[in-house]
Amino acid sequence: MSERRVWRPFRLSDSPAQRELEVLASAKKSMDVRKAFQSNPHRVQELSFELEGLYVDMSKQRLDTETQSALLALAEEAHVRGAIGDLFGGERLNTTEDRAVLHMAMRAAPGDCFEVDGQDVLKEVLEVRERMLAFVDRVHEWHREGQITDVVNIGIGGSDLGPAMAVRALRQFGNGPTCHFVSNVDGAHLESVLEDLDPKSTMLVIVSKTFTTQETMANARLAKAWLERGGGELSRQLVAVSTNTEATEAFGVSGSQTFGFENWVGGRYSMWGPVGICIALSVGRDRFEEFLSGARVVDQHVQTADLAQNIPVQLALLGHWNQNCLGFRSHVVLPYAEDLNRLPAYLQQADMESNGKNIARDGEHVSWNTGAVVWGEPGTNSQHAFFQLLHQGTEIHPVDFVAFAKPTSRYHDMHRMLLANALAQAEALLQGKKAPEGEPHRAFEGNRPSTFMLFDRLTPKALGMLVALHEHRIFVQGVLWGIASFDQWGVELGKAMANALLPELNGEQQVGAHDASTTALVERLRE
Ligand code: F6P
Q1: Is 491 in the pocket of ligand 1 (CB under 6 A)?
Q2: Domain 105-288, what fold?
Q3: Which of 15, 123, 205, 381 has the most C-beta neighbours closer than 10 Å?
Q4: Which CATH superfamily is 12-77+305-487 part of?
């Protein structure tokens, strides 16, 4: 088990290890990774990691053993090991909301130990999980009998992105009703989903941690009315997932169709419990449990592996090196798997809502970079969209390739084409190519960094591992940067202003005091 100590604020700007890294970076910034491969035959082994069917190769990054040791020194100084202990120990790491951060308990197995304020929380988690999975079994029976054909998940942010990503990722394992996702407050989203569904055989699952989110409640009210109008049976076809069971009851959801969870599960970290009900509805009890087991492999690994071999820690240090030492500000995620087409969107929230912060835990401004800009699209589509910029643009954008040795479709030959493309792009980014005489526009500089993550197959377990790896990578980066990764105050202002603007747009209130640009827009829209 990992060391336990109450986490202490750490300022990167005061860190001797960070100063060393900066000195090192000025030398390594121009490091030619191609030459590093030539001079060190062990480079791949030294910079790659393995864990239960996952192979992570960082050897195409501008790293070497000297940099690795300096990064490890930073991890020691930032008390990364102690912070991981605190996370699993249920300390109130979400300081600005005074909450523990225990999403790992939602995927725990009987016999594990998770406590908040000295109280066991696992018993209740396991009871709710069993109640949810028994419900899933029942819905699968209704599905076999043709009574429930479709499920609509209504939620947004963490109540949408993780489950939507996972349901699509596990498409090949789907054996339950078809799951659809409605999130946007643009009525076009709800309309486009409902127009093809039958209210008599559709289940609505309203997912909202707070059960107050404007978008979700607006969609939920309309969908509920649609279900009632169409002769659906509310007592059976309406389900709610929330920490706010008073509000779910007031909305008319029966207690037996309501699944609760606690505030110590952050929205964007919540797909392991009731928020992931659509994942379970889509693939069934056994596959859902495999998904949780994959995450547990990583939970165990992050707590016990030596930091030098600890994959989430190594990924976190690499991200820090790239953006705070080498100045590469974005992080491109390229799943070479169409079924992972929502991975970049899911990671945008997981990473940017967690680490997009400019105030450190001590209340002072940070003077270093925090959350990277995360973006991406599946390969090979992305090759025909933005790879031009990755290969020849003026800035360097480190890339994560995520690939699977075995196909997710029955078209096996196509899978080899897909893999050939992933390997070729990673190699092209690294090797580059000299331009023919007089044609400088055809030059590829090369030496562009990437990480290659290779899983055996896109299974529920592999997906659980992939997500948990990122969750812990994001956590460790928050520790290095000394920020509070588990709140999201930055989304509040816009929400409040939208609520204030609505009556003005509706003409129910005078146009308020805005900047001239907003006033002009409001007036134009009121006309
Ligand atoms: O956008 C902010 C946010 O609070 C996210 O953190 C959260 O995942 C999302 O809104 C949805 O919140 P809720 O689950 O409470 O509806």
Answers
A1: yes
A2: Rossmann fold (3.40.50)
A3: 205
A4: Glucose-6-phosphate isomerase like protein; domain 1 (3.40.50.10490)
> How many helices, marked H, and strands, marked E, lie in the chain?
21, 13
Give the Å distance between the CA of 433 and the centre of ligand 1.
Answer: 46
Of ligand 1's listed atoms, the one at least distance from the Cα of 155 is 16
Distances (CA, A) of 66 to 25, 43, 76, 311: 11, 12, 16, 18
Q: Which residues of 290-305 are buried (b: 16+ CB within 10 A; e: fewer)?
A: bbbebbbbbbebbbeb
384 is catalytic: yes
Task: Report yes or no: 224 and 204 within 8 Å, Cβ to Cβ.
Answer: yes
Q: Whose CA is nearest to atom 16 of ligand 1?
A: 208
Per-residue pLDDT tens, the chain, 527 aa: give them: 445 555 566 899 999 999 999 999 999 989 999 999 999 999 999 999 999 999 999 999 999 999 999 999 999 999 999 999 999 999 999 999 999 999 999 999 999 999 999 999 999 999 999 999 999 999 999 999 999 999 999 999 999 999 999 999 999 999 999 999 999 999 999 999 999 999 999 999 999 999 999 999 999 999 999 999 999 999 999 999 999 999 999 999 999 999 999 999 999 999 999 999 999 999 999 999 999 999 999 999 999 999 999 999 999 999 999 999 999 999 999 999 999 999 999 999 999 999 999 999 989 999 999 999 999 999 999 999 999 999 999 999 999 999 999 999 999 999 999 999 999 999 999 999 999 999 999 999 999 999 999 999 999 999 999 999 999 999 999 999 999 999 999 999 999 999 999 999 999 999 999 999 999 999 999 98
> Does 12-77+305-487 match 105-288 in CATH topology?
yes
Catalytic position from the list 262, 353, 377, 471: 353
- Ligand 1 atom closest to residue 161's alpha carbon, by position in its atom list: 8
Does residue 216 have its Cβ closer than 6 Å to ligand 1? Answer: yes
The residue ranges of every structural domain in the chain are 12-77+305-487, 105-288, 491-526
Q: Is the CB of 157 under 6 A from ligand 1?
A: yes
Among 123, 406, 433, 495, the active-site one is: 495
Q: Does any ligand 1 atom lie closer than 6 A to the CB of residue 263?
A: no
Instruction: Return d(Cα 189, Cα 179) in angstroms, integer.
Output: 14
Of the residues 35, 384, 406, 434, which is catalytic? Answer: 384
Distance (Å, rounded) from C-alpha 24 to C-alpha 14? 17
Which distant-in-sequence residues (6+ apart) come within 8 Å of 136 by Cβ? 176, 277, 280, 281, 284, 285, 288
Among 211, 488, 493, name the best residue to mutate to test ligand 1's pocket (greatest count of ligand atoms within 8 A of Cβ). 488
Question: Which pTM was predicted?
Answer: 0.97
**Share in percent of the chain as helix, strand, coil (round to 5):** 55, 10, 35
